[in-house]
Amino acid sequence: MAKITHTNPRRRITLDDIARKAGVSKATASRALTLPDKLSKSTLERVRRASKLMGYVSHGVARALATGKTHTIGAVIPTLDNAIYAVSTGSLERRLEQAGYLLLVACHEFNLHTETKAVRAFLGRGIDGIVLVGLAHAPETIRLLDETRIPYVLTWNIRPGIRRPVVGFNNRNAGRVIAEHLLRLGHRRIGMIAGITKFNDRAADRLAGVRQALLDAGLRLPSELVVEHPYSLDGGTEGLALLLSRQRPPTAIICGNDIIALGALREAHIRNINIPRELSVTGFDDMPIAELGNPPLTTVHFPMVEVGTHGGTTLLRALGETEDIPKTELSLRLVVRKSTGPPPSRSKLTR
Amino acid sequence: MAKITHTNPRRRITLDDIARKAGVSKATASRALTLPDKLSKSTLERVRRASKLMGYVSHGVARALATGKTHTIGAVIPTLDNAIYAVSTGSLERRLEQAGYLLLVACHEFNLHTETKAVRAFLGRGIDGIVLVGLAHAPETIRLLDETRIPYVLTWNIRPGIRRPVVGFNNRNAGRVIAEHLLRLGHRRIGMIAGITKFNDRAADRLAGVRQALLDAGLRLPSELVVEHPYSLDGGTEGLALLLSRQRPPTAIICGNDIIALGALREAHIRNINIPRELSVTGFDDMPIAELGNPPLTTVHFPMVEVGTHGGTTLLRALGETEDIPKTELSLRLVVRKSTGPPPSRSKLTR
DNA sequence: GTGAAAGCGCTAACAA
DNA sequence: TTGTTAGCGCTTTCAC
Predict the structure, then answer these.
(1) β partners of residue A298
(2) What does the radius of gyration of chain A's CA atoms come to, in whole angstroms?
(3) Residue with CA nearest D5 C1'?
(4) Which residues contact B93 (CB under 8 A, 6 or more apart)?
(5) How far apart are CA B19 and CA A131, in angstroms?
(6) At what angle do helices A15-22 and A41-54 cross, to 10 degrees?
(7) B95-127 burial: b if 16+ Cβ within 10 Å, else e
(8) Mapping DSSP to helix (H, G, I), strand (E, B) and coil, where does residue B281 land?
(9) Separation of alpha carbons B294 and B297, rounded Å
(10) Given this model, what pLDDT does residue B347 score?
(11) Which among A60, A155, B68, B334 is most buried, taking Cβ atoms within 10 Å?
(12) CB of A193 closer than 8 Å to CB of A186
């Protein structure tokens, strides 16, 4: 009689299976995978062989339920459409995967309510830690963070006196540094194409820093010389057009980031405005793409903490994963780009 | 005697808790959250109230263990440093979160072995579906996909006859279209700055398409006119330098993507080469940043399936989440950028 | 319509 | 060093 071979219905291989195969208890099989040193060489070897033979993969969900740890970190970022967040999220991912953690990503698209929802979803999913962007969050978000006592880190901005785990740089100071640079070049009428500051404390702080620097110099940042635009080429284009349409246009324009600056440079080119002879333009960030600026923008170094892992190292430390964390990663540099500055000129800007 | 109020050690609120509070069984409480229609209005209301009152959040891990579904999708992409992958991952995330799914992201940095590792990690974590980039994968990866029968989708490339779930466009045809465009303009000596084709079937197919178009026209793509460089400005810069250093340089250069094209344009500008009079340059993709090209590139529409959700819709359908999937999302357009073409000229390129 | 009880696959005391 | 025994918090038959 011919034997009928059924393709067995691909049942999941469990610890019980390999335990049985290896002739040990389930507990021992479990230990073989998590605490190998606690086992005798021979049993360890037997379990390993069985597990390899049967193609066993540990059931992470079950393990998570038993241990309370998912080895998963959640990051809620504004958007992946902005290269700066994409790149920093990538660096975070690299750091985490090194340490055996997986990264959940959610984007709130500059909506604080969406951010709260994402945090809640993460929490429900039992993540071990959470990364947020910026200092300003919905009260509900903060409450969730505090009540659940989940390890977390706020990124991309710091302010003196902040009592929470933060990583990044002081956007306010950075804004100030740029403004002071322009003042030193002799500019007295300075404008700014800021990012949208609503729900974005980084953008707001950069603006605040610029404003403060001018005040400290006995000058003002008049409201007609401040516009807020999205971080896009068109944002820069439209921003420049607006500022140049003022009665008394500025002699220097501080842009909220490099993309805006590139858009502004493009528009200036179209309008036949010579940069930097007739107008100074500064960028922000260190996007490689900024090299396309014409003329190229000059740079100033500005210290930034842990941009290389985007908070990953801080988080891992909080999770007790200290041993394999190289300390050297803890400090890197952000570059603030600026156009070489000319003294301000009367100019044909008002045309 | 004064009562001493202990801050209770923040034990997790479980279903048992709200069941007790609502005076029902755990099973009923569970139903209230997942099958509300199966309950009487009054009990449903009671459970809901209790759960709100105690601030209950369902334990996703436990639910996942019980149901076998995590409501999590894993995406393994090459890198978040390339804007094109960042943006498509963002669109995937948006689509998934709409449907109540979370997105795990891993980057393999163009290493097929790393990709396999990531897939395995995802599988262990019990993800419900998986998104990969490209058609070419390690045999081990394919085996995992097939053996576990996990719903998956391959993105960013399609080829006729492929029997797997794919989403994207035909890179080979796209390459051909570009080459034919240049041939039509009269070019006979065409070069290419391709992306790194190792582990990247999209880059390889674009190159293959160009090669085929030339062959079909009775021409060749000589090996000295093909260079492979990373998708970066410098890649374009160096690529152009190399191609122009050939004995007989090309009259047109096809770039593997927009960033390379921008780098090439920048280098051409520095070398005082007039584009497109002396040299044609074409890009690929539709990066907004490509607007910075000087001269601006013209565009040709090329059909791409589901770029708007990057496979998310396909995956959700496989997962049975059909009801809320708008069919209109299923087809969008990719734009292939090309420089306006001049007839080829003798030129000063050989200088 | 609701409850009791049996798991999902794993880890972690506690014993031996 | 290894095994036994309880769970982790939820869903899901199967009775009632």
Answers:
(1) A338
(2) 27
(3) A27
(4) A80, A105, A106, A107, B103
(5) 33
(6) 120
(7) bbbebebbbbbbbbebebebbbbbbebbbbbbb
(8) strand
(9) 8
(10) 46
(11) A155
(12) no
Q: CA-to-C1' distance for A25 and C16, Å?
A: 14
Considering only CA atoms, which residue is closest to the C1' of nucleotide D6? A66
Q: How large is the angle between the packed helices B83-98 and A83-98, nearest 10 degrees?
A: 80
- Residue B21 DSSP class: H
Closest Cα to residue B247, out of B229, B225, B272?
Answer: B225
What phi, psi does B306 have (nearest 5°)? 55, 40
* pLDDT for the residue numbered B346: 47
Q: Residue A133: beta bridge partners?
A: A155
Q: Which of B80, B113, B238 is the mutation pick for testing A, counting most A CBs within 10 A?
A: B80
The pLDDT confidence band at residue A345, using thresholds 50, 70 and 90, is low
State the Cα–Cα distance between residues A298 and A302, nearest whole angstrom.
13
Tell me the per-residue pLDDT of B234-289, one tens digit each, with 9 for 90 and over: 999 999 999 999 999 999 999 999 999 999 999 999 999 988 889 999 999 888 88
Confidence of residue A10 (pLDDT cuts 50, 70, 90): low
Q: Is the minimum distance from the CB of B27 to strand D below 7 Å?
A: yes
| Res A4 pLDDT > 60 | no
pLDDT tens string B119-172: 999 999 999 999 999 999 999 999 999 988 999 999 999 999 999 999 989 999
pLDDT, tens digit (0-9, with 9 covering 90-100), for A319-334: 888 656 555 444 556 6
Q: How many CB atoms lie within 10 A of CB B90?
A: 23
Residue B171 is given by DSSP the state H
Q: Which nucleotide is nearest to A65 (CA to C1')?
A: D8
Lowest average pLDDT, out of A299-303, B85-89, B238-242, B290-294, goes to A299-303
Would you call A214 helix, strand, or coil by DSSP? helix
CB contact under 8 A, A80 and B62: no
Which residue bears the tokens 């890649």?
Answer: B235
Of B201, B348, B331, B178, nearest to B258 (Cα)? Answer: B178
Q: What is the DSSP letter of B290?
A: G
